[in-house]
Design goal:
33 helices; ARF guanine-nucleotide exchange factor GNL2; mainly alpha; two-stranded antiparallel ribbon; 683 residues
Length: 683
């Protein structure tokens, strides 16, 4: 630029439009810095590595934060490179050093402490811009855990970090917590705020002060780690971009599954896996407001790690299900759960299906969680998967002698409130109730109460039917292939008969229980449920089908069971007991048949159905109990036949001789109970 050129430039400037001042953001600085980012990081790392002067080390750290501050504006790769470069100075990632060597190097050199505190400060301050760097951060955390340099809970540590020995803390716009109101901790101008912790903590004076206070090597290390506020990296991740959130989850879940890990003992493996799930819990709890946006990918990570060649479900699933349930409870306690409930329960179910043993090892926690959901958040559960999962966990974890009372009382409380039983959870309530009743050592009085409540639910089916197939739980969620979509079923999809069949099946199975009191009450409850459900069993087809599938099947099963006992040695008590239940079942068959006689008689297959009743009467009449003597059924069957035929004649279903049904009945009665022929057919 000689004078002539300068004059020419000035003259040219007079001929152009005036400059316009524009309020540009930091993108210009970002683009300029991108050209020198790589060499800058390499230079900074080299200076930090080879210098021992405290002032230069602090300048390196300040430069480190300056680079991070620029890199947050779209230079994610640069920030990841920066973190990886400085993580190596922590000495934690040296694959060739033993635990003792690593711990010695970390404890006796200020550089590793400075590097570690810098890395975690960046992770706290600029977490929104970190992508691949999370892997390195998680590796450092896992190494600290193995060296036992982390407390039992990172998050308890963070809560306790503001102790009386520290200056008062204040949060700057950058998000970094720094000392305030004290000049010795440095000024608070832009660019020096992040350095405040280092000026106050990572100085030779502070080290000497710690020694003068008599702090041990371990206590000094823990004090440094406490200042890193590691827990807040995850517990304050609610605004982290989705891409970064996915990177965090993937790194932690893969580490928990053993990816890149070598465990020296089972205890070390369990502690590491538990630590990883503690981190996932913190992330999940901080992000319950957006579970639908990121959890499908987290679930995919769970599916992916399950396919690892050396994947071990224990302790992975064991720790996972506890963490997932904690997240689930937070979701249900919030008002922002649309789409979240089904996603988290999908993962919970995946865990116990990986290893069913965890339902035993974690039964106390899972039971308390299920109880809390049922008692405090029943209206928050909106999906079939949610109810199925909770009631399944209740029935499985409530089988232990020490948890039975809690489990069964929770179920009774739920079923005592008709407003809590909906079309969404009805079948799962039935299944859970049957699971408790089927327990061998369950209390009879509790079983009786549950069966009474089961029978009473038949009236709910009628109410829903009368209300036009709608009820408070009409929003039924069905999982799509992706597991993240919710489909609301139309109201017309409600099928009261299918629900009634499920109820009848449960009571039918219970009629085969080992204890006679339970069996007999199941039979009585079955009769009650049929009577209460009269308004949905009004058509010939529904009546006959329900008879075939439930009552006929119950009688056949009881008869077969009685014969099985009669063939066993020393089983007379069991045989007679089963015979008593069979007697009750035939009485119920008779009463229910007569109650629904009108619609049944209108069935086009009534003759076949009627022959089915007569055949069962004949089978019971001719039952043989081998060495245990004659059956008592012949004392009962004639009275039942008399009652049925008399009623059919009164209602003109059996009308006159010569009619096919009349003749068939006449010949069957002659075969079954000849003594009744003249009484019932004097004609």
């Amino acid at each position: 630029m000689n004078p002539n050129r300068w004059v020419q430039l000035v003259n040219r400037a007079k001929n152009i439009e005036p400059f316009i001042l524009c309020d540009f953001d930091r993108r210009l600085g970002r683009d300029m810095f991108a050209a020198i980012a790589g060499p800058s990081i390499a230079t900074l790392a080299a200076v930090f590595e080879h210098s021992d002067e405290e002032e230069i080390l602090h300048e390196c750290i300040e430069a480190l934060f300056s680079i991070a501050r620029i890199a947050q504006y779209g230079l994610e790769d640069t920030l990841d490179e920066l973190l990886c470069s400085f993580c190596k100075f922590t000495t934690l990632l040296n694959p060739y050093a033993s635990a003792e060597e690593t711990l010695y190097a970390f404890s006796h050199d200020i550089k590793p402490k400075m590097a570690m505190m810098a890395v975690f400060t960046i992770a706290n301050t600029f977490k929104d811009s970190i992508r691949g760097g999370w892997r390195t951060i998680i590796e450092c955390l896992l190494k600290l855990k193995r060296l036992k340099l982390l407390p039992q809970s990172l998050f308890e540590m963070d809560n306790a970090s503001n102790s009386v020995t520290e200056p008062p803390m204040e949060k700057l716009e950058s998000g970094v917590v720094v000392p305030s109101q004290d000049p010795k901790f440095g000024n608070r101008q832009h660019g020096s705020g992040i350095m405040a912790r280092f000026l106050s903590f990572m100085s030779m004076e502070s080290v000497e002060e710690a020694l003068n206070l008599g702090l041990s090597e371990f206590e000094q290390n823990m004090t440094v780690i406490q200042q890193c506020r590691i827990g807040s990296i995850f517990s304050t991740s609610s605004t982290v971009p989705e891409e970064s959130l996915l990177s965090i989850g993937r790194c932690i879940i893969f580490a928990a599954a053993g990816k890149g890990q070598k465990f020296s003992t089972p205890v070390e493996e369990e502690e590491t896996v538990a630590f990883c799930w503690e981190l996932i819990t913190a992330v999940g709890l901080a992000n319950t407001h957006r579970i639908p946006t990121f959890w499908p990918q987290y679930h995919d990570y769970l599916l992916e790690v399950a396919q690892f060649p050396l994947f071990s479900p224990i302790p992975f699933s064991e720790k996972a299900i506890v963490s997932l349930m904690r997240i689930c409870l937070k979701i249900l306690a919030s008002d922002q759960q649309e789409g979240s409930e089904e996603l988290i329960f999908k993962s919970i179910n995946l865990m116990w299906r990986m290893e069913k043993e965890i339902l035993e090892t974690c039964y106390e926690f899972l039971l308390q969680s299920a109880i809390k959901i049922i008692t405090e958040y029943p209206t928050k559960l909106q999906t079939q998967l949610g109810w199925m999962s909770v009631l399944h966990l209740l029935s499985v974890t409530g089988r232990h002698p020490e948890t039975y009372d809690q489990g069964v009382e929770t179920l009774i409380t739920l079923m005592s409130n008709p407003t809590q039983i909906t079309r969404t959870n009805y079948t799962y309530c039935i299944d859970c109730a049957f699971a408790f009743v089927a327990l061998r050592n369950s209390r009879i009085e509790k079983n009786v109460k549950i069966m009474d409540m089961l029978a009473d639910t038949a009236s709910l089916l009628v109410e829903w039917y009368r209300a036009g197939y709608s009820d408070p739980g009409s929003s039924v969620s069905v999982a799509s292939n992706s597991g993240s979509s919710l489909i609301e079923e139309p109201a017309r999809s409600y099928n009261p008969i299918s629900f009634f069949q499920r109820l009848g099946e449960s009571l039918k199975k219970t009629s085969l229980a080992r204890r006679e009191e339970v069996r007999n009450h199941a039979v009585i409850s079955l009769k009650k449920s049929f009577i209460l459900a009269e308004d949905i069993l009004f058509t010939p087809i529904t009546c006959t089908n329900s008879f075939y599938n439930i009552i006929f099947a119950m009688v056949d099963d009881l008869h077969e069971k009685m014969l099985q006992y009669s063939r066993r040695e020393n089983a007379e008590k069991e045989t007679r007991s089963m015979e008593g239940t069979l007697k009750h079942s035939m009485e119920v068959l008779t009463d229910v048949y007569l109650h629904f006689l009108k619609p049944i008689a209108e069935s086009p297959d009534f003759r076949t159905f009627w022959l089915g009743i007569l055949r069962r009467m004949d089978t019971c009449m001719k039952a043989e109990l081998a060495e245990y003597g004659a059956s008592k059924m012949p004392e009962v069957i004639p009275d039942l036949l008399r009652k049925i035929v008399t009623s059919m004649k009164e209602k003109e279903i059996l009308t006159r001789a010569g009619d096919d049904l009349w003749d068939t009945t006449f010949y069957q009665i002659q075969w079954i109970a000849p003594a009744l022929t003249d009484e019932l057919f004097p004609e």
